[in-house]
Structure formats: structure tokens, C-alpha cells
Amino acid sequence: MRRMTTLLLSLLLLLSLTACGQGGPSGGLIGDEAGPPAETPPEDEAPEVPDPEPYLILDPTVMPEGGVRDGVTYVAYNGIVEHLFFHPVVAYPELAFDGDAQDNGIDDYMVTADEYRKILQSVYDKGYVLVDIGDVWSETTGEDGQPKMVKDTLYLPEGKKPLILSYDDTNYYDYMLANGFTYKLILGEDGKIASWGKDPQGNEVVSRALDAIPILDKFVEEHPDFSPFGAKGCLSLTGYAGILGYRTQTDTKSWTAAQEAVRQKEIDAVKPIIAELKRTGWTFGSHTWGHIRLGSKSLETIQADTQRWFDEVGSLVGPTTILFYPHGERPDGNDWQDTGPVFRYLQSQGFRVFCSVGIESFSYIKKDICGVICDRLHPDGITLRYARDRYLQFYDAKDIMDMDVRPQRGTNWS
Ligand SMILES: [Zn+2]
């Protein structure tokens, strides 16, 4: 038995080291995104044809404890909870892949709206159902009287597998606006979340088909059993360029009353968007204010950044226990074997679920502090081209990747 335990531990160690390692395509970010303050996109919105389909609203916190409900049998699930994350999706490939300096970065880290739709269809067809990241682990008191995280038993429709989705950098950075992404989230005429942006000809476009968030909303409307508890995804927000396409950030270099007045208007404008996202199953996490490296910045820098995130983002989206590491970089350089000063500080600020990027949906409940670390898989150009096998449980890159619109950079499977 002891030998078995040792073997198991070594295996776990090996597995985790691989998952946490630097090798292989990992990371999942577009360079250093911090840039100059963003230009505010125009306010007026084009009208949209009302969509007659109603939202299916369920209480996202309801996890029935087994048994039969509405003809569906719910059974206990204690296996791996898969976790996929996306960046904003490419609305207009002809702008994203137009031969400029951003092409390869977008190709590496993003999928197009069409590819994203096909990925959703495939994970749905393969029996995954959406669960909220906040329902997978919870805080409890251990036998020693100390708080600790535990993995919850999920009760899922029989035969289904749980899937967490998260979306990094849903801020609508400046560079994205010129490169074929949508500009911001708005409420359409029907009151539902839509995107606002401009097509390659410069026409204003309000749509529910061009942005990852309304695309998932629409998919769940069409396939309500994809989200049996009303969960959608967790939006991972920085603060330096505002949030959700609204320029709610401050600038410490110069700040005038006029700038503050504009900021207050943006804050007023984003509040109903946040409320509607929450109402329809979306949750929020921190991606740090300045998209900073948690493995190499000083503790003082990280403390100031965290406070600024709470002031400018947390004040709008509410409390969160979820932290998504920028660049996938782990606090103190290693959050698994060590619990360093940065990790301890972040945990003291209320974060409990710490998400990196890796080659599998690895998760580990820390023993010495109340927190859980987890790796996420990253559907994007890199893994579509070079990690087809690892993603076959979700989709086949051959069926997903749009070779006609992406740069001709090859794959290791075609
Ligand atoms: Zn990021």
C-alpha cells in the first residue's frame, strides 16, 4: 500500500511537473499588451433585428444533488473537470490576417468566430456540459481548524462531462480594434448582449455572431442542455484599457476633470452590460490590472497593481476568487511546490482559484494554504497546428481550422 502511494505520488509529481513545465506550446497571450490609453469608440449603435428566442435563465448556483429532475437523471461526477480558455475571437479574418506585424500573434493565440462556433458544436456533440468555475471547488474548514479548498462533487446529467470555459483579456484592447475584432459589448435592441464594431468597409455592425460572448449565449439558447445549470464562462479582465470595451481606467501620468467626466460616462455605460452578463451566467476574474508578470515583478509592484484592479475593475464587477495569471506566469516562479510571498499576498486578497495555462486540465489543491491551482488548455492557432492529438477529446483540428483565412504556416498533421 505504501509502495502504491509512493508510486502514485511520483506519478502525480511527474504529471504535474509536465503540466507546469515550460516545454511545449504554452502561454497564451499576445506579447506585452500594456499600451497607451485607448481611444474611445463612438457611442451610437446601429439598430439590430430583434431575436425572438428567449433566454433560458436558470440559477447558476443550483447543482441538484442527484436524482431525476424534469426527466433528466443527475449522477455524481468526481473526475477531471476540463477547462478551455479563449482570447477574443477574430470577427474579420481579412483584417486580422492582412499581412501586418500582428498577423502571426493573432494566428498563434486566437481562433476565428467560425472556428470558435465549430469548437462549441464539437464539445457539445462530445457530451460536455458547461459548469461554472465557482462551483467546482469550495472553501471549507479542515480538521486542523484551518480554511482549505475542497473539490466539490458535481451532479451532472447522466453521461455528461463537465467543462469550464474562460476568456482572457475581454477588454477590447486598441490593437484589436484595428485588427478584425469587435470593439465592445453592448445591449442590442432586444436587450441581449451583442457586440459593436466596424466591418472592413468601416460600417458600424451590431451582431451576436462575431464575438465569443454572444456566440456562446446564442449557442446555449439553441442547445439549452449544453448549460444545465445556466453557467456560461468566466471573463478574465485586466484594467489598464478599461473593461468590455469601455474605457473605465485612470491614468496616473495626467488626470483632469474632463478625463474623469469621460471615465464616469464609460462607467455608467458598462454597468448594465455587467448586470446582463451576470444575469445570464457569466462570471468575472482578475487578469491583473496591468497584465503583469507574477513570477518576476516585485511584491510591491504586485500589491499596487492588485489594489488598482480592485479600485477600477473589482469596484464594477464585484468580488471574485478567481485569478488568471498573465502570460501564464506562476507567482514566485512556482506555485505548486512552493507558496511564496506573492502567492500568499494574492491569497490574502481573496483569491482562491489560481489559473495558469498548460497541456492538460491539471488541478492541485494546496496543502499549506487555502487555494487551488489549475491549468487550462488553449484552443488557438498554436494548438490547432501543433497539438491536434491532445485536443481530440474536444474536437479534431482538421475539422476546425480554417486554412483559407489563416496565414500559410503549416501544421504537423496535414
Ligand atoms: Zn492575457
Brief overview, please?
The chain has 414 residues and is α/β, with parallel strands linked by helices. It is built from eleven helices and 17 strands.
Question: What does the model show?
Answer:
The chain is α/β, with parallel strands linked by helices and 414 residues long. The chain has one domain (24-400): TIM Barrel. The protein is built from 11 helices and 17 strands. The strands form 5 sheets. Strands 3, 4, 8, 12 and 13 form a 5-stranded parallel sheet that branches. It has a 4-stranded mixed sheet with strand order 14-15-17-16, with no helix packed on it. Helix 4 (113-125) packs parallel to helix 6 (212-222) and helix 8 packs parallel to helix 9 (341-348). The longest helix is centred in the middle third of the chain and has 23 residues, at 257-279. The radius of gyration is 21 Å and the shape is globular. It starts with a helix and ends in a 14-residue tail after the last helix. The structure holds zinc ion (ZN). Zinc ion binds next to loops.
CATH architecture: Alpha-Beta Barrel
CATH fold title: TIM Barrel
Helix content: 25-40%
Quickly give the structural class.
alpha/beta
Dominant shape: globular
Total strand count, please? 17
Order of helices and strands: HEEEHHHEEEEEHEEEHEHEHEHEEEHH
pLDDT under 50 segments (min length 5)? 1-61
The radius of gyration is 21 Å
What is the secondary structure topology, with strand pairs?
Elements: H1 2-20, E1 67-69, E2 72-77, E3 82-86, H2 93-96, H3 103-109, H4 113-125, E4 128-130, E5 137-141, E6 147-151, E7 154-157, E8 161-168, H5 174-177, E9 184-187, E10 193-198, E11 204-207, H6 212-222, E12 234-237, H7 257-279, E13 283-286, H8 299-317, E14 322-324, H9 341-348, E15 353-357, E16 363-365, E17 372-376, H10 381-386, H11 397-400
Parallel strand pairs: 3-8, 4-8, 8-12, 12-13, 14-15, 15-17
Antiparallel strand pairs: 1-2, 2-7, 5-6, 9-10, 10-11, 16-17
The structure holds zinc ion.
Zinc ion is lined by residues 29, 168-169, 287, 291, 326.
